[in-house]
Recover the amino acids of this structure.
């Protein structure tokens, strides 16, 4: 019995030993290095790319019937057979002939790559050919995959190497443009119960050949509530504009404004009168006259060189005039000239400069015997420089000159008439003209009202009166050369608050008054104007643009009574384009390209199209990646 | 009776033990051979990959070498596997070539085939493996050759064996 038990033990022990050794040998033999298999795949994929890059198509395609068929069908030509294989495969891909490229690829590679491998050829990640239609290993079941790539480029197929190219120039156009006359901030103040009228002129120069399509005039008296005003256009009283209070938008629906406008110079007048206990009367800077017209003039953009004051007559009190200035281009020098008539009784004029809400005194000057007063560049520049402001800081942003015609004060007693002669009162600016606006054949300027805006976060202190603390404007300038975007705002500030004022253009901060940060931009009490040019880069671009305003408690804006516009340039010509086999096609292409550039608001009424014959102008595709994948 | 039992048990156990020892020895010897084989296999695979890569992607040195001037053997030239260089390779003495290729301890065999698997114009070099070969590894490299003025696809087979 003992022997039997002993024998069974020995047999079990022997079996275990045999099993362990056998298992060890079995698994040892199954260990195969994936690195070596990867190396093999890498060699094959590299070799394939080398062969495709170094061979001529005619040398490596075995199926001559296929080649002849493609030549007969015009897909290939005889010369292609002497081109590098990869160039032809790429050219077919770029021309959209993927299946032809795939057929050639398969013919070249299928009897060349070892049959135990699967493979795929790709150009710019587009699959050209995959060996899934053969008995090769499928990609889905692959255990190792390797790919190699090369950057390739070449001539486009089916594009003529010689033929005609054409360009087109708009010599005469028809464009729908918008003229905007923004009112400056002009006020007077008289003590009750006396009365004072302040008569302000608004000049709108419409091209002589224009057809006026639409117009409206938003007029807002200071404080926007109970001050009264009456208005005229070209000497005629505008219907519906008699003794109005606060503000009013005059348009075709409620006035005869459109009938009173004419091509050429238009002069509108508004007489403001201080009512009751309101501190001042006049224009609070939110007034804007908007005229949409059609013209054949390529250039209608007003130069920045002389920015005129509006004619103002205050029949019994002094005047405070805040003149916003905006310039695109580097400022070299500036001067201010104010004409008060040679019969004026005005004693003196005080001039100040304001930027970012900060006011700097320039000087007070007595009026000369001929009724004028002037500040030259040195006088202005010295004051600015002594306050750390250079002219470089002024480009592409609003800054202000403030003129007091006699010492201005609120509720002053009545005295004599003060008049600013707008036609001869101006801020003169010598500046660099980045683009020669007047150069015919170059650019067409357009101004558009910014109508796409949204707002939220209603100001609770203003109740339901439409004042908001977040406003966003969106506008698209694709294929345009942006110049500037400008706004005037119906603003409100609660005394005693120091609120956030944040302006962002395309997410780039361009103004930031942060009450918690003393080094941030200063607070602007009258956020009446804001504008910017294309600097810093990205704020105003060829494409989608947005502009956002954020305020905190104590400040808000009424977007519906505010106004924004954008001015941009459209090229009046297109250069030479693609090569066409015949002149007519080249000419038609140039005309179409010009129309695409001009867009909906501009029509070319007369075009100069010229074409020339060219030769040896290849079209290129790529660079793109050509890739060969191999797998087992 | 007790002594008889003990004696037969002992003989039975000793017999089984010797069998187990014998089996273990046989497996152990085989395992040692396997381990040696794997070492050789890895070495051959590494060498054959390196050798094939140099042959098809390198011009060798000097660039236009012949059997007298050659220092490094490479067959590539102007995008092709250069047949003139292959002819020069054939003139190099076998053991010299093995030494230059860094495969002194193994045998090598190189041949150039077309897509149907036929050797092109007797472009072959070295000793092809025979039945005594223990480990044989081949690498296929794809390339182009200029055969009598016609550029065509070709496959270079590079074999290393022991």
């Amino acid at each position: 019995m003992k022997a039997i038990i002993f024998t069974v033990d020995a047999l079990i022990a022997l079996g275990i030993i045999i099993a362990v050794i056998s298992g060890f040998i079995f698994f040892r033999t199954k260990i195969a290095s994936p690195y070596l298999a990867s190396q093999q795949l890498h060699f094959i994929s590299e070799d394939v790319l080398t062969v495709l890059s170094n061979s001529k198509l005619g040398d490596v395609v075995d199926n001559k019937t296929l080649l002849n068929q493609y030549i007969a069908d015009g897909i290939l030509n005889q010369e292609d057979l002497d081109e590098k294989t990869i160039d032809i495969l790429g050219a077919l891909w770029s021309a959209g002939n993927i299946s032809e490229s795939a057929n050639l690829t398969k013919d070249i590679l299928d009897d060349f790559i070892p049959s135990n491998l699967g493979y795929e050829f790709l150009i710019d990640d587009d699959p050209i050919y995959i060996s899934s239609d053969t008995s090769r290993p499928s990609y889905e079941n692959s255990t190792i995959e390797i790919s190699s790539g090369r950057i390739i480029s070449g001539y486009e197929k089916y594009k003529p190497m010689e033929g005609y190219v054409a360009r087109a120039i708009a010599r005469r156009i028809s464009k729908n443009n918008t003229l905007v006359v923004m009112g400056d901030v002009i006020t007077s103040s008289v003590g009750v119960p006396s009365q004072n009228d302040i008569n302000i002129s608004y000049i709108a120069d419409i091209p002589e050949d224009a057809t006026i399509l639409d117009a409206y005039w938003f007029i807002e008296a200071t404080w926007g509530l109970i001050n009264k005003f009456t208005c005229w256009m070209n000497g005629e009283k505008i219907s519906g504009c008699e003794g109005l209070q606060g503000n009013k938008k005059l348009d075709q629906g409620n006035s005869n404004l459109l009938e009173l406008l004419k091509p050429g110079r238009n002069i509108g007048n508004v007489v403001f009168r201080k009512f009751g206990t309101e501190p001042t009367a006049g224009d609070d800077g939110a007034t804007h006259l908007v005229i949409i017209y059609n013209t054949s003039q390529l250039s209608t953009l007003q130069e920045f060189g002389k920015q005129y004051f509006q004619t103002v007559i205050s029949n019994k009190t002094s005047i405070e005039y805040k003149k916003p200035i905006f310039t695109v281009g580097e400022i070299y020098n500036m001067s201010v000239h104010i004409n008060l008539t040679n019969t004026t009784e005005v004693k003196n004029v005080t001039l100040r400069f304001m930027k970012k809400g900060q006011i700097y005194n320039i000087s007070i000057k007595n009026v000369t015997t001929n009724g004028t007063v002037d500040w030259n560049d040195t006088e202005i520049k010295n004051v600015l420089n002594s306050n750390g402001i250079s002219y470089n800081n002024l480009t592409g942003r609003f800054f202000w000159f403030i003129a007091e015609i006699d010492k201005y004060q609120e509720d002053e007693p009545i005295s004599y008439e003060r008049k600013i002669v707008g036609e001869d009162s101006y801020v003169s600016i010598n500046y660099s003209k980045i683009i020669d606006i007047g150069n015919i054949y170059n650019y067409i300027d357009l101004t558009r009202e910014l109508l796409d805006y949204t707002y939220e976060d209603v100001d609770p202190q203003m109740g339901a009166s439409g004042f908001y603390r977040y406003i966003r404007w969106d506008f698209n300038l694709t294929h345009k050369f942006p110049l500037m975007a400008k706004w005037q705002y119906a603003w409100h500030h609660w005394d005693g608050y120091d609120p956030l004022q944040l302006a962002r253009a395309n997410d780039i901060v361009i103004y930031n008054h942060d009450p918690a940060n003393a080094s941030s931009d200063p607070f602007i009490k009258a956020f009446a104007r804001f504008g910017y040019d294309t600097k810093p880069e990205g704020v105003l671009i060829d494409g989608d643009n947005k502009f956002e305003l954020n305020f905190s408690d104590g400040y808000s804006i009424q977007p519906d009574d505010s106004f924004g516009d954008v001015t941009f340039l459209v090229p009046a010509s297109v250069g030479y384009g693609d090569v066409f086999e015949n002149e007519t096609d080249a000419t038609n292409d140039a005309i179409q390209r010009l129309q695409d550039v001009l867009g909906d608001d501009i029509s070319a009424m007369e075009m100069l199209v010229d074409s020339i014959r060219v030769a040896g102008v290849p079209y290129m595709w790529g660079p793109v990646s050509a890739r060969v994948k191999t797998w087992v | 009776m007790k002594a008889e039992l003990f004696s037969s048990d002992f003989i039975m156990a000793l017999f089984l033990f010797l069998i187990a020892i014998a089996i273990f020895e046989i497996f152990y010897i085989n395992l040692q051979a396997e381990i040696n084989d794997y070492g050789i296999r890895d070495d051959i695979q590494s060498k054959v990959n390196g050798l094939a890569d140099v042959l098809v992607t390198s011009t060798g040195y000097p660039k236009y070498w012949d059997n007298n001037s050659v220092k490094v053997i490479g067959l590539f030239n102007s995008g092709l596997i250069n047949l003139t260089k292959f002819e020069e390779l054939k003139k190099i003495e076998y053991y010299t070539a093995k030494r230059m290729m860094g495969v002194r301890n193994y045998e090598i065999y190189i041949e150039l085939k077309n897509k149907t698997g036929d050797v092109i114009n007797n472009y072959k070099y070295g000793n092809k493996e025979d039945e005594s070969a223990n480990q044989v590894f081949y690498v296929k490299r794809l390339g182009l050759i200029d055969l009598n003025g016609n550029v065509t696809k070709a496959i270079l087979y590079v074999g290393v064996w022991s």
